[in-house]
Amino acid sequence: MASLHYFKWSFIVTAVGLALGAWLGWNATGTIGGMFAVFFICAVLAVLEISLSFDNAIVNANKLKEMTPVWQRRFLTWGILIAVFGMRVLFPLVIVAIAASIGPIAAMQLAINEPAEYSRIMLDAHLSIAAFGGTFLMMVALSFFFDEHKEIHWVHVIESRVSRFASIRGAEITFVLVLMLIFAHLVDSAEKLTFVMSAIYGLITFLFVDILGRVLDKANEAMVGAAKGGLGAFLYLEVLDASFSFDGVIGAFALTQNLFVITIGLGIGAMYVRSMTIMLVERGTLMEYRYLEHGAFYAILALSVIMYAQAVVHVPEVLTGLGGAVVIGVALWSSILYNRHNPAEVEGPSLQSTTEDAGGRH
Fold first, then answer.
1. Dihedral angle at the C-alpha atoms of 23, 26, 28, 29, nearest 10 degrees?
2. What's the rounded mean pLDDT across residues 52-81?
3. Do 243 and 60 touch, CB atoms closer than 8 A?
4. Fewer CB atoms inside 10 A, N or C side of the chain?
5. Integer distance in angstroms from the first to the last C-alpha of the chain?
6. Phi and psi at residue 343, in whole multiples of 5°?
7. Burial class (CB in 10 A: 0-12, 13-18, 19+), 231
8. pLDDT at 88
9. Hey, where are the domains in the chain?
């Protein structure tokens, strides 16, 4: 019950969103059945977004602990607005505008007046989105495992060996490029170039954001006298959220072609991800459950491979979400077992107090 207060705004947004969805259903059909149909779709989309993005919340919390309290608040306010409205509304419009060579206003009109054509254009762009997002997320996951300073290993036989290769420059990039070429051979000949180019853009985007983040945060370090994530970490999290949202946005079109219904459903889910992020940060859950973060990055790695696979075969979004949830659940259970056998290590400062102490030194 103590955790419920973290979800207060999520519950409010859920109530407002579902009521708005019901109104849209009634306004469009004029029937009780139509009203409940749209209401149900909004609820399903919210659950889909939560299941696909729980690992996103864990990674967000991990990055937020490196940020100053000011930038934490900025991400949890402005960042969530960008995530909900930018990625769930503007991003699909930009994709359609580029693919159809029309302006954003025309794309909005297309979404309202010709939702079937709007959906078709979005689905045609799925290959590029899957290759771009899959590559970016794969680099995010591999950057966690290819770390020579990483001391805690969940699947020790794998992670201990992988961390040894971290000292080899470009090891994770080589892994991604090899996997990219393997899947490129499986894609239809007419789409090989599109897949490869989109994947390369995903790789370049990750490297650019990573370098930019280091430069910006180094500048911030020089100003405040301590290495604290600021604008660089903020930009990293925004691009990361964008990559996570690709799958949910595309998958939503399997349930409805109405842009506004998709926005409501995914927006509700995004609010729960925000609430989970805040709870993980303030309660120090990542420190309490030592393998939870590992599970999240394994789930991200699996999601990235699935996004590559979607360029060849259809993978149900429900399976994608459940798979990630299972991996994280196993990691949580492993953490609980570890804590039971090592109770002395559980005692220690929480993430919240650690963050506050670090912030207090400035």
1. 170
2. 76
3. no
4. N
5. 34
6. -65, -25
7. middle
8. 67
9. 4-356
